[in-house]
Amino acid sequence: MQRASDRWVSIALSVLLHGALLAALVYGWMMFRRPAPKPTLAIEATVVDARALRGALRPPPEPRPPAAPEPSPLPPPTPPPPQEPLGPPPPTPEELARREEQRQQAEAAAAEERRVAEERAVEEKRREEQRAAAEKKAREAAEARKRAAEERQRLAEAQDTSEREAELKRSLATEEKASVERSSAALASWEAQIAAKINRAWLRPPTARAGISCVLNVTQVPGGEVTQVSIGECNGDQAVRESIEAAVYRASPLPPPPDPALFDRSLRINFRPD
Fold first, then answer.
1. pLDDT band (50, 70, 90) for residue 59
2. What is the pLDDT of residue 31?
3. Across all residues in the chain, what is the average pLDDT?
4. Is residue 77 a part of any domain in this protein?
5. Which end of the chain is more exposed for a tag (fewer CB within 10 A), N or C?
6. Which residue from 165, 168, 220 is spatially nearest to 191, judged by alpha carbons?
7. For residue 241, what is the domain's CATH number?
8. Dihedral of the CA atoms 101, 107, 110, 114 (nearest 10)?
9. How many CB atoms lie within 10 A of CB 242?
10. Residue 247 lies in a domain
11. Which domain holds residue 232?
């Protein structure tokens, strides 16, 4: 700051010096241009050179002040402190009342929206529960109908199966009975053929009486060859027994059965020759 002040002082002195010099020049020039008055008296005068006069009138130059040191660069100006912005003017009572009314209206509208939303949510939940209950009821009814239909079908199939099984059993029983009857008849016919052949081969002993009845246990192999004979119940004596046994061997091979399925290795034949 001191160097800046010195600089301004030097500038002011220079301006004053140049101003004084200019004033002296103007004054001399005006004196030179003014016309001399007419002489009324003879006056002895000495001619004076105007340039010498101007030089004499010129004030001596003042001594030049010492050169001021080169001023250092000024520091940047300090920015002014920020000023706080002025706030808006306080609201008027009418503005406050209007704002309060708007706030109350907004709160009322928001409360109404919440109430409507809650009622809508409750109604939607109620409809959803009703829809779910109806779907569940319909699903249970459909499942019940399906179970009933499956049960009816199962009972019908069971009854049909039972009837078929009963019919099959009756058919099998009838077939078996017929087969047994056929087998019995065929077996009886076969046994009769065997007994007839044995009777033809029997040599009646003298001790044989009328009404002989003996049970013969005969073992044969396929083809009818007799391998063993034993006499069971018999009302004849020993000679009769032996004669009947010999007759069985002489009758070998025995007649084949009418049905190969009737063949049996062990035969029980009732021998009644009379």
1. low
2. 63
3. 81
4. no
5. N
6. 220
7. 3.30.1150.10
8. -140
9. 13
10. yes
11. 184-271
Residue (of 205, 197, 269, 264) closest to 232 by Cα position: 269
For residue 219, the cross-strand partners are 228, 266
Q: 2-33 and 50-57 are packed helices; what angle lies between their axes, rounded to 10 degrees?
A: 150
- Domain count for the chain: 2
Eight-state DSSP code of residue 223: T
Average pLDDT score over residue span 167-186 = 82
HEC readout, 204-216:
CCCCCCCCCCEEE
Q: What percent of the chain has pLDDT over 90?
A: 46
pLDDT-derived band at 41 (thresholds 50, 70, 90) equals very low
Tokens of 179: 């087969």
Residue 83 pLDDT > 70, yes or no? no
- Can you tell me the distance from the alpha carbon of 230 to that of 251, in angstroms, rounded to the nearest whole number? 15
Express the helix, strand and coil content of the chain in percent, nearest 5 each.
60, 10, 30
Q: Provide the Cα torsion 199, 200, 202, 206; round to 10°.
A: 100
Q: Which of 33-37, 42-46, 55-59, 240-244 has the highest mean pLDDT?
A: 240-244
How far apart are the C-alpha atoms of 24 and 59, rounded to whole Å?
7
Positive or negative: CA dihedral 168, 172, 173, 175 = positive
- Within-domain flag for 205: yes
What element of type H or E holds 141? helix 93-201
Tell me whether residue 125 is in a domain: no
